[in-house]
Design brief:
3-stranded mixed sheet, 44% helix, alpha+beta, flat
Length: 536
């Protein structure tokens, strides 16, 4: 077609017209739809005129000449000068491009598995990919090596899904709040011994929910476990209103004896004083029924007493608004197994708080690769309901208690009772005023200081009666051994205590007019006497 058009041009001007025409056609894209050849402009022409507006001195238009030649070929030519409207980029492809550019920091296969997981959990994949691309772009843009890309993506997916797979009621989720999730996300609310506790819980949409608990006395781990169990029974059992307008939940007395030991009137009085508290939740949508009566105050348990007809049962009277909220579906409550209740009641406050704290964030398979990282003050408020102490020594005591409590949970495998699937071993890390909880398959078995001394004694020392070796020679060889083997060395004082525990004796002898400490009965292996320091 181009050659046929150039035949209309005089031979002297033909090279110039051919260059202009081919330069114009480079800015157009040719597509064949049926019997129509469409030339669509896809690039700017610059100083060149468009095909429909270029008139040569010979009196013909380029577009018309091409159309005539197309008709001879049995085609219909259509020239479109309007460029196509730019299509918005696909969020999934944008996310994949970011991941491919940063494949050294995040595995593309892991991201594809996360997209499939989001689709399986009912999350809009495009919306998730759009938000993930924004967050990863900020992460890789500021080159923050301490941040974990996997943790960011799993946290985003957890924000877009509900934290509990099991609910009481099938009501609408819009504006609904999970009472037990709020209480377990900040277990200091129900486990603090104080009469009044206030906790501020930030939400994913930027708002803050403030929960206030005040009552006649604080809560013990036994009372908190009973409270959670009674609410779960009320959520998943058929209840009928009593003559006083409340809903009664009957509990066998033998079950409470597993928690409290002996159950008598004094025990129920203390339990009634602990459970007769009021919860106020501000920051929810006031247009929902829960938001309206939560801001005024929730009285979950109206009273505890022995059953008048059967003294072997204990009756908990629940307030009608709470039961109504559960039945209508705008208050979600999770089912709590009885074995978990018994286990949590036998823990101390910090261990019981940690179990609830982990159960909210790591329920089921959620957050397998997502560590929990918070400031020390936020962790102290969430677990104990009070701000973290400012004194460094008291803070280090809190760190020690926290590590000891997590170690007890790992040893007893308590996380399995609240629905957390493997890995169920928790590692606590404290870095720059922040506490990080991380899940691993098993704790690393590292040789301790005592093991390094025992290994050194087995490989480098031999016992020989009458031998005497200076303590500086032994400790220097021990330090070189630890450096070679990559073991953590102990101090000189701990080193001496370890040798004394093995019934080795140290003496002071005079050499060259000065006192030298020597260990009797031991010497180094494979060393000549001069280097060994043997004084025998």
């Amino acid at each position: 077609m181009v050659e046929a058009v150039l035949e209309r041009v005089p031979p002297k001007r033909r090279p110039t017209v051919e260059g202009i025409l081919r330069a114009q056609l480079r800015c157009y894209e040719a597509t064949l739809e049926g019997n129509t050849l469409i030339l669509r402009r896809v690039a700017p022409l610059g100083d060149l005129p468009p095909l429909t507006g270029s008139l040569f001195p010979d009196g013909f238009c380029t577009a018309e000449a091409l159309a005539e030649e197309a008709e001879r070929e049995g085609l219909r030519l259509e020239v479109v000068e309007e460029p196509p409207a730019p299509q918005p980029p696909d969020p999934v492809e944008t996310l994949r491009a970011i991941v491919r550019r940063n494949a050294h920091a995040i595995d593309p296969l892991e991201v594809e598995a996360l997209l499939r997981n989001a689709h399986a959990r009912g999350v809009d994949v495009a919306e998730f990919a759009r938000a993930a691309a924004v967050r990863l772009g900020r992460l890789f843009g500021r080159r923050d090596r301490r941040a974990d890309a996997y943790a960011i993506l799993h946290a985003l997916l957890d924000e877009m899904t509900t934290p509990w797979p099991e609910y009481a009621g099938e009501g609408p989720r819009g504006g609904a709040a999970t009472l037990l999730v709020y209480l377990c996300a900040s277990p200091g609310l129900i486990l603090s011994p104080a009469r009044e506790v206030t906790v501020r819980i930030p939400r994913s949409d930027g708002t803050v929910v403030e929960v206030i608990r005040y009552g006649r006395r604080g809560m013990s781990p036994q009372a908190a476990a009973v409270f959670e169990w009674v609410l779960s029974v009320a959520a998943f059992a058929e209840l009928r209103p009593s003559a006083w307008g409340t809903y009664a939940v009957a509990v066998p007395r033998a079950d409470l004896e597993l928690l409290y030991g002996e159950v008598n009137a004094r025990t129920l009085a203390r339990l009634d004083a602990s459970l007769s508290f009021v919860l106020r939740i501000t920051g929810l949508d006031d247009r929902t029924p829960l938001g309206r009566f939560a801001s005024e105050g929730i009285l979950p348990v109206a009273g505890v007493k022995f059953d008048d007809r059967d003294p072997d049962r204990v009756v908990f009277r629940l307030s009608p608004p709470l039961v109504q909220a559960v039945r209508e579906g705008w208050l979600y409550i999770r089912r709590v197994p009885w074995g978990a209740v018994v286990r949590m009641s036998r823990m101390n406050r910090l261990e019981a708080a940690l179990v609830r704290f982990f159960a909210v964030r790591w329920h089921g398979r959620q957050g397998v690769r997502h560590p929990i990282e918070m400031t020390v003050d936020a962790v102290h408020r969430a677990l104990l309901g009070t701000p973290a102490p400012a004194h460094p020594r008291i803070r280090w005591r809190f760190y020690a208690r926290l590590r000891r409590a997590v170690g007890n949970l790992n040893r007893r495998d308590d996380l399995a009772r609240v629905g957390i699937e493997p890995p169920r071993v928790i590692v606590v890390e404290v870095r720059r005023g922040r506490i990080r909880f991380r899940r691993v398959e098993a704790l690393p078995v590292l040789p301790g200081p005592e093991d390094s001394v025992a290994r050194w004694l087995r490989l480098r020392v031999v016992r020989r009666p009458g031998a005497r070796t200076p303590s500086s020679v032994l400790y220097g060889d021990y330090l070189r051994f630890c450096k070679t083997e990559g073991l953590p060395p102990v101090t000189a004082r701990s080193f001496g205590r370890r040798l004394r525990s093995l019934r080795l004796r140290v003496r002071v002898v005079w050499l060259g007019g000065r006192a030298v400490r020597v260990w009797t009965g031991v010497e180094l292996k494979d060393k000549p006497d001069k280097e060994n320091g043997n004084l025998s």
